[in-house]
Amino acid sequence: MSIHVSLDVIALIAAIVGLGVAAQFLAAKYRVPSVLFLILAGVAIGPEGLGLITSGTFGDSLSTIVGVSVAIIVFEGTFHLEYRAIREASKAVDRMITIGAGIAFVGTALTVRLLLGASWDIAFLIGALLIATGPTVVAPILAVVPVREEVATTLEVEGIVNDVTAAVLAIVLFKAMTARDLAPRGYVWLFVQRLALGVLVGLVVAGVVWYLLTEVELPAEAAPQTARLLALAGAVIAFAAADSVFSEAGIVAAATAGFVLGNLDLPHQKGILRFKRDITSLVLSFVFITLAALLEFEELFALGITGLVVVTVLMVVIRPLAVFVSTAGAGFTTNERLFMSFVGPRGIIPASVATLFAVRLQTEAPPTDPAGANILLGTVFLAILVTVVIEAGFARRIAGILGVTMSGQ
């Protein structure tokens, strides 16, 4: 029996990998972000399609698999970020991850509260989760839409930083919902505590990897492969070490390690980056297909037209407001700011964390809140589905209409 189950899981993983590669191939051929095809593939093999994947397919290990996968994705995203580019775009970046994030957080929470009638707890939890645009969805868009470096860097940094801070903020808020004996000052401390631990662990791991690559002599024929494997190990170890203390600190550690290593003068750096991109493409395929397969349309339909109105407000009111306020006087053209307003898809972090919260609200959290769990999961997944399909699917066309693509590309 166990052998039969194992073979079924192996066949399923093989199918997911195959669909992921097919999605990457179609994305390259038609110059459309791969995320679009990955979500469609996931829905096709999930409960709403062929039923090959259900919520019980991977059991309790799914959250761990997703966590490690996101760590690898975030590590790769920060690894290729140059400090110089961030410094040049720092004015807009600083505002996007502070003022822009604040507008998204409060605006989303108010919208959910007023239109869906959710409790303030659930509304602010959804607001925190939907701050994150995320490198997992932004990077595939920028891969096929060549825009000015300052525009791309601002969107990438916003996605990476907000992915991390949104996850930590959401978990702190969730703790506030389920453990009301903390004072407000305690929530701030929880937030700072997790960020600080993640940064510290990331710095330590980056230092160890740097030392091994630069100070330990290796045979010339083995050095390139060893460098690639050490970088991959660094991402996973940074995540695991911080995650073992605070579950939400692991992504911070992976992001920190990636950024530090990417800005150091490492041997075989280009080879490491190419290897990480290949691994990330594979991991991205697995995570998006698997999570999309867990979508249940019943939860989406339960929100009705009001749910679509909420997502529309997020896309055409809150996102543009956040972008235009954050980029005022930062050297972007109006059309570039319009394009940045259009590119705000939500991705892996909101999906995985919302799923975890929904399960806890339904089964563990005192008091249980199944209605809130349904609003939480339905709103987050609807926002992901609509923003990815529309924004990833039409990003290149919108960029062309606005004239923000680099000439000759």
Automatic annotation (TrEMBL):
TM spans (from-to): 6-28, 35-55, 61-81, 93-116, 122-147, 191-213, 225-242, 278-295, 301-326, 338-359, 371-390
Q: Span of the secretion signal?
A: none
Where the record annotates domain Cation/H+ exchanger transmembrane, the positions are 14-387
Membrane topology field? Multi-pass membrane protein
Q: What are the annotated GO cellular component locations? A: plasma membrane
Q: What is its main location?
A: membrane
| InterPro entries for this protein | Cation/H_exchanger_TM, Na+/solute_symporter_sf
Q: Which UniProt keywords apply?
A: Antiport, Cell membrane, Ion transport, Membrane, Transmembrane, Transmembrane helix, Transport
This entry's Gene Ontology molecular function terms read: antiporter activity
Instruction: State the superkingdom.
Output: Archaea
Tell me the compartments it is located in: Cell membrane
Gene Ontology biological process terms from the UniProt entry: proton transmembrane transport
Q: What is the official name of this protein in its record?
A: TrkA-N domain protein
